[in-house]
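Q: Start with the shorter request: fold the first protein.
A: Done. Sequence, then structure:
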Amino acid sequence: MLIKKELLERIIEGIFLLLGLVTVACVLLIMVFLVLSGIPAIREIGLADFLLGQNWAPTSATPSYGILPFILTSVYGTAGAILLGVPLGFFTAVYLSKIAHLRVRSFMEPTVSLLAGIPSVVYGLVGMMVLIPWIRDFFGVPDGASLLAAIIVLTVMILPSIIKVSMTALEAVPPEYETASLALGATPIETYFRVSVPAAKSGIAAAIVLGVGRAIGEAMAVVMVSGNVANMPELFQSVRFLTTAVSSEMSYAAEGLQRDALFSIALVLFFFIMLINALLNYFLKQAKEG
């Protein structure tokens, strides 16, 4: 009986190892494909002209392939969504997991889960019909399709991931931690923020990473509310993200340099996401060691 149990555990371990290797292999294959597809265009255009050029006009008489507006727009849009979404999602998670009445929580949790299941195109449609007219009227701008609209939509879209994962991490904190803190005279709020949150910081950090990944990789909703124009980023101006640059032109891009340049944009986006994840993991490791 013991031998069969050990054999079963080894088989399960082998399956998990195989699945992990398959996942790593998929990432490596994607990276190799993007490198092989994207490097030729970068070599022909020139790395500096490609990354630092401010004009994207692949179909003009004298084509130009500068993607600096796309890079800066993606940076500003992601940073804005994180600055708005992380505090809101974090405090909502603390409230729902530690403070909220059972009736409030029983209503809010399914609502958050519902937000996570809504397709991106629905967010974009609501943004087009409600958010863009509101920005146009409230701020008195010619067109509400702008970087601000994209930031607000991305903020709403990353909230479910941040809230759900943060709640799971907070609920996994052993109750003895909070009981001991309360016994020492700390108030409930002090206990939640000085005991529970530090104990759950790895899970909360994972929630932030998921939120960053969702914000960077979103295309459909963003293309519907951002205006999709290759301008340098301004809050009330139509802009284009790295993701929307690829999705909006790939369907009609002619064979040749234009199509290869879109693969180069995808390669830049891939390394951009890897860089952000590496930096987040580095800072988390430093905080844990500190």
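Q: Next, the second protein, separately.
A: Sequence, then structure:
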Amino acid sequence: MEYRKLIDGMRRFGSTEADICRHMLGVGREAIRENVILAPWWQPASMPELGSARYLSESDFSAIRVWDIEFPSGGCTYIRTGIGAPVLMDVALALGLTACRKLIFIGSVGSLTPEIGIGDVVVPEYSICGDGANRYLADSLAKDCFGTRARPDAALFETLLRTARNVCAENGVRCHVGRNFSIDCIFPQYAHIDEILAMGVNTIEMETAAAFAAARVAGLPCAALFSVSDNTVCDKSLVSGRTEEENRYRQYVRKALFPRILHSALE
């Protein structure tokens, strides 16, 4: 679907572009910088070395929060969207009406292979759609996009992957290229793991198929940076099996390495 058609759909029922931004983002579009970080759950406090964070406002949706971040090489807008493809898609689409010119998604991912461990860094080369939100980007709701691949912007993916590999190598942390599957919900996924693995994926999470697809419609370069939170095939799922040592290591990687990767990728 063309982005203008989405905007016209809202204008038809009385909304202005300013209304859309204020409602979906919780701030006016003038508050959004060219560089934007989207995170489903993490807040800037989890990465204090990212920069000086100034909280801007809270949207009508209490899960969506926006900060302005200053760091030595520049700055960015940081948006916590809440968990799941629908809320993230609304935010990504609204950013097409702002000054945003580069979008990096950051968040947790589950590993589906023993080779990718908890705390490792992953940059996905694609995400397979397993969510329902993507259906609304098609020209007709009758078109089923389940199982299709959404890809990041090629140039931004290469920049982010190169940067992540360099920073990880300097710090003895493993960095992987992800082939991701994006789900809608956590509880029932485990009954379908074999079917999901048969698609050739090595990671699983909830938002990036929607993020990549929405950003492409909105004309925004987008890529993603993951921290591995769990490993289902090693019996270390989101709900059981992970050790305190593994969780501490993951928190260290996010706190110490993610800011360095993001600073370089957003220069």
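Q: Describe the second briefly.
A: DSSP finds eight helices and ten strands in the chain. Residues 154-170 form the longest helix (17 residues).
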